Amino acid sequence: MEDNTTKETEQVEKQSKKKPSLKDQIELLEKEIADLKDKNLRVVAEFENARKRLDTQRIQDRKYASKYLIDQLLTPLSQLDKIVELPTQDEKLKNFLIGFKMIKDQIFKTLEADGLKEIEALNQPFDPNFHEAMEKIHDQNQPNGINVAVINKGYMYKEQLIKPATVKVNEWSEEHGENK
């Protein structure tokens, strides 16, 4: 009897080592198909997401294409702005400064038409997102946390900050009757 049991066990082992049954093959193939479909869907989704990101980036690049140029122009234009505001008694120089001011105003109007906007800072509450404090004063006659002077103008280009306004801020404390 042991021989029959051993032979049967050997036959079962041989059959199990042979090709899987058709049912097993079908199940394996169906699982493989399901895995491939899942991978395919993931690849298609990743491709669509990448395409959408690229489209969004292209739109942003076009929208803010002038930002770098405007940023580079602001420093010399700010210097020109300060120069044309200088007081003078010389009539010839006054006429030149008036002409330069007109040119500067035209340039700023062109930049504003493209999306440049000056940040309102004077007499506004200090906002670190748009203002950079360069000095503090302690005047209890003025509101606390208010910009009392604009040292350099700040600018936004469309919704993006190009240059924060540098300001002088009033800051005081009533604690112990001392200014801090």
List strands and helices in order, with pairings:
Elements: H1 2-17, H2 22-63, H3 67-84, H4 91-113, E1 116-118, E2 131-137, E3 146-152, E4 155-157, E5 160-163, E6 165-170
Parallel strand pairs: 2-6
Antiparallel strand pairs: 1-4, 3-6, 4-5
Helix pairs in contact: 3-4
Under CATH, the topology of the largest domain can be stated as Nucleotide Exchange Factor Grpe, Chain A, domain 2
Give the helix/strand class. alpha+beta
Main sheet summary: 3 strands, antiparallel
Per CATH, the architecture of the largest domain is: Roll
Mind telling me the C-alpha Rg?
Answer: 37 Å
Low-pLDDT regions: 176-180
- Proportion of residues in β-strands: 15-25%
How many helix segments? 4
Could you say how many structural domains there are in total?
2
What does the overall shape look like?
A: elongated
Along the chain, the helix and strand elements come as HHHHEEEEEE
The CATH class designation of the largest domain is Mainly Beta
- CATH level 4 superfamily of the largest domain: Head domain of nucleotide exchange factor GrpE
Question: Assembly type of the shown chains?
Answer: single chain
Strand order of the largest sheet: 1-4-5
Descriptive report:
By secondary structure, the chain is an alpha+beta fold. It folds into 2 domains: 21-63; 67-177, Nucleotide Exchange Factor Grpe, Chain A, domain 2, CATH 2.30.22. Helices cover 55% and strands 17% of the residues. It is built from 4 helices and 6 strands, in the order H-H-H-H-E-E-E-E-E-E. It has helices spanning 2-17, 22-63, 67-84, 91-113; strands spanning 116-118, 131-137, 146-152, 155-157, 160-163, 165-170. The strands form 2 sheets. A 3-stranded antiparallel beta sheet has the order 1-4-5. A hairpin with a 2-residue loop joins strand 4 and strand 5. Helix 3 (67-84) runs antiparallel to helix 4 (91-113). The chain is elongated. The chain starts with a helix and ends in a 10-residue tail after the last strand.
